[in-house]
């Protein structure tokens, strides 16, 4: 260089500034050239951020008042290439630019959370029809998944923007660790979280609330969220197959819900079973006609008889299907053994309710009752009907629905052992009386039988059974006894059985899906609900009492040609003839509940048959009412449809004829009274069957675990954005003048351009040789020529100044 021989001043390394306290020098008289390297202390404290200014910097180094070019010649600021730029922002523009990223993400997230949480029906299971075009569900779902992916990208950008904004403010302030230098641009990079620079950056874990620990925690949080918000968005936005409510008031818009069963609601599920003396019930039900008449409790005998006949194949564990004769709907009678109590539970919906819902389903298909009409046939959507039975105080059109539940228990004795006893008690232990005092008293002191004075004392008696018995009228415990004969010659295996039963009306609701199944399903259908209802002594069921005349209706005479009158119970129990025979083949064994006690299996069989027959008899009560729906009502007219008629004859219009009478326009019949009295007698005192309809198809908002997870993830994201916005607002209000926005280095490439101006730590050009290098702190500062630099060493820190607070300065 010119003048070097005459200049005793040491020469500086190429491209460095003349700061003699910081750099090693080269003696020009020496022949070898050595690289200039800063003398780095182990730790240093930066100058006070709040009090630093250009004047204080100038006082520290008068030689830094001007800048040097590459040849060591001084140059002024206007000679530096490029145009100075604003690095910092303080105006409202910084908020506007920042929230350009967050606003679309936040608004779309709120919309998706609402869509995914509200139970919305989108389209039927076969897909939507838009204009003249039919679209498959898969096409719509694929499009929604694309939308969910776009939403995921917006949320990740929003999270990255938060991390980057805080990271850049930390970079121009107290600085970040070298191992964290690129973290602001790597949100979502799981590999970086597992890398050595991240784990070896030397955070002070004893200060969990320090800015650098909080910034690292925010980065980890944002990375985890970026991996989960995508699936969460797809779960909320993508519809799934399920049942959804109709729009309010549209399902039955052309009728006045509910369905009405015209029978006194207080006597539909009567707690006392007695003969209806107002009809010829007793005379007809005790004859073979009792197996066919609708109001006879033995009406279900034929189906039960066929079911019991197959006990060797089924062990009487399969349900029995009873089909409605007026509509395509059925109900199942289900037996279930409570193994813990050795009690058989049987239940089934009431027959009148089955027919009422079946009539209504036929009416939906034939008439326009609202949006639900014609759904299965038209291909629009599939629907189902649900009852919502519950008594609401002050609402005459609300009532709880019930169904019978019978507990039955039998005990078998060898006849010889039985006849040797003085008295034998009927088995009533473990029967649940649900708090009924009469039942509990009867179970504590059950009916007893004296074998020597009983019919079983006859030597050659064949199969025999008593009728269902009660000690006195209005008793709650029903008894029955009988004998099963051995078909072999020695008759040594004859058995005597004693059975007891307790019946109750249990609250239940029902569902009917005419497309998938024609069976009316009950909430008491599954095993768990049956065991809970039958075993809970605090259950809300009503114990049923019986009279002797009504119980006699269960055993009508079906064959009078035999030596003695042959009843329905005789026929039913006769199928167990030979059950006590020694099996000639292993398949003849009755499957026992325990390997060693075959009598226990026989007791379960008998209890199942006897309990099922009593359950079906209770289900056949209250079948003489009619089913109607109210269509319209005004002060002068009332219109209703009688559903047991065809549609053409079903509509009845009741109008005011004069001051004392009404007229049925369909029949011309005159009815005494006014419209209010007719409405009260015909509708308000009858049994309401409240129904709601649901449609099957694709929609969102049905509760499930994945939905709750997705809601939680997006709620956390929204909470993070709100917390960030609150922190920014608080900083603006309570710390006016603080630089809140950093405009530069929004991309990693910008930071790389800045990093090129800063040499890496010594010996680390090919990669870090020690993990401790990641502990160094890196800051962004400016030199005297307003050139921005990455500063890592303490000496370089002393030779530079912080960026200005006013955001008016421009930097190169």
TrEMBL record:
Q: Where is this region: Disordered?
A: 36-57
Question: Which domain of life does this protein belong to?
Answer: Eukaryota
What protein is this chain from?
Uncharacterized protein
Q: Where is the composition biased (Low complexity)?
A: 45-57
Please give the start and end residues of each transmembrane region: 714-735
Q: Which organism is it from?
A: Apiospora kogelbergensis
Record lineage: Eukaryota, Fungi, Dikarya, Ascomycota, Pezizomycotina
Which keywords fit this entry according to its UniProt record? Answer: Membrane, Transmembrane, Transmembrane helix
């Amino acid at each position: 260089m010119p003048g070097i021989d005459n200049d005793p001043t040491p020469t500086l390394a190429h491209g460095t500034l003349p700061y003699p306290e910081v750099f090693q020098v080269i003696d020009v008289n020496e022949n070898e050239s050595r690289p200039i390297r800063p003398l780095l202390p182990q730790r240093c404290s930066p100058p006070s951020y709040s009090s630093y200014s250009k004047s204080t910097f100038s006082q520290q180094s008068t030689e830094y008042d001007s800048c040097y070019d590459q040849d060591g010649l001084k140059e002024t600021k206007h000679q530096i290439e490029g145009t100075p730029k604003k690095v910092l922002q303080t105006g409202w523009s910084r908020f506007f630019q920042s929230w350009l990223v967050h606003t679309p993400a936040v608004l779309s997230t709120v919309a998706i959370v609402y869509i995914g949480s509200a139970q919305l029906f989108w389209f039927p299971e076969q897909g939507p029809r838009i204009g003249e075009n039919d679209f498959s569900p898969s096409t719509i779902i694929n499009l929604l998944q694309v939308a969910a992916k776009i939403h995921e990208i917006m949320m990740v950008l929003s999270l990255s923007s938060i991390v980057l904004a805080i990271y850049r403010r930390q970079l121009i302030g107290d600085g970040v660790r070298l191992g964290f230098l690129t973290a602001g641009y790597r949100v979502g990079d799981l590999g970086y979280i597992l890398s050595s620079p991240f784990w070896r950056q030397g955070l002070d874990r004893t200060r969990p609330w320090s800015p650098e620990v909080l910034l690292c925690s925010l980065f980890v949080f944002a990375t985890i969220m970026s991996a989960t918000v995508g699936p969460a968005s797809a779960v909320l936005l993508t519809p799934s197959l399920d049942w959804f409510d109709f729009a309010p008031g549209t399902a039955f818009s052309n009728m006045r819900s509910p369905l009405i069963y015209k029978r006194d609601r207080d006597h539909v599920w009567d707690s006392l079973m007695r003969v209806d003396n107002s009809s010829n019930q007793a005379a007809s039900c005790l004859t073979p006609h009792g197996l066919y008449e609708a109001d006879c409790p033995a009406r279900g005998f034929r189906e039960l008889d066929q079911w019991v006949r197959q006990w060797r194949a089924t062990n009487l564990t399969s349900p029995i299907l009873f089909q409605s004769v007026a509509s395509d709907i059925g109900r199942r009678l289900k037996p279930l053994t409570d193994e813990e109590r050795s009690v058989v539970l049987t239940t089934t919906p009431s027959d009148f309710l089955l027919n009422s819902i079946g009539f209504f389903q036929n009416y939906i298909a034939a008439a326009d009752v609202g949006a639900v009409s014609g759904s299965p046939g038209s291909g629009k959507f599939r629907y189902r009907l649900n009852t919502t039975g519950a008594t609401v105080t002050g609402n005459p059109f609300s009532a709880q629905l019930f169904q019978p539940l019978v507990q039955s228990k039998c005990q078998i004795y060898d006849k010889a052992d039985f006849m040797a006893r003085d008295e034998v008690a009927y088995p009533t232990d473990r029967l649940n009386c649900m708090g009924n005092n009469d039942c509990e008293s009867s179970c504590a002191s059950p009916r007893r039988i004296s074998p020597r004075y009983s019919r079983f004392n006859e030597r050659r008696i064949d199969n025999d059974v008593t009728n269902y018995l009660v000690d006195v009228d209005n008793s709650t415990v029903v008894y029955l006894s009988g004998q099963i004969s051995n078909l072999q010659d020695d008759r040594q295996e004859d058995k005597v059985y004693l059975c007891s039963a307790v019946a109750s009306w249990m609250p239940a609701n029902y569902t009917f899906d005419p497309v998938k199944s024609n069976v009316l399903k009950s909430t008491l259908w599954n095993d768990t609900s049956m065991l809970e209802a039958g075993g809970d002594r605090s259950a809300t069921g009503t114990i049923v009492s019986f009279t002797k005349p009504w119980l006699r209706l269960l055993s009508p005479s079906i064959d009078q040609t035999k030596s003695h009158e042959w009843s329905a119970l005789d026929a039913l129990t006769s199928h167990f003839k030979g059950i006590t025979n020694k099996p000639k083949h292993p398949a003849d064994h009755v499957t026992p509940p325990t390997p060693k006690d075959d009598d226990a299996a026989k007791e379960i069989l008998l209890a199942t048959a006897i309990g099922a027959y009593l359950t079906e008899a209770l289900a056949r009560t209250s079948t003489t009412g009619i089913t109607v729906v109210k269509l319209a009502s005004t002060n002068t007219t009332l219109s209703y449809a009688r559903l047991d008629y065809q549609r053409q004859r079903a509509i009845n219009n009741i109008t005011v004829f004069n001051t004392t009478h009404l007229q049925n326009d369909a029949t011309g019949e005159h009815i005494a009274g006014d419209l209010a009295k007719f409405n009260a007698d015909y509708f308000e005192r009858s049994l309401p069957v409240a129904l709601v309809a649901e449609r099957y198809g694709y929609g969102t908002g049905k509760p499930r675990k994945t939905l709750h997870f997705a809601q939680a993830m997006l709620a956390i994201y929204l909470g993070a954005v709100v917390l960030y916005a609150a922190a920014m607002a608080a900083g603006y209000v309570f710390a006016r003048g603080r630089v809140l926005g950093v405009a530069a280095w929004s991309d990693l490439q910008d930071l790389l351009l800045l990093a090129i101006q800063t040499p890496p730590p010594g010996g680390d050009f090919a990669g870090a040789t020690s993990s401790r290098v990641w502990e160094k702190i890196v800051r962004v500062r400016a030199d005297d020529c307003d050139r921005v630099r990455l500063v890592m060493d303490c000496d370089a820190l002393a030779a530079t100044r912080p960026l200005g607070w006013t955001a008016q300065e421009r930097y190169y």
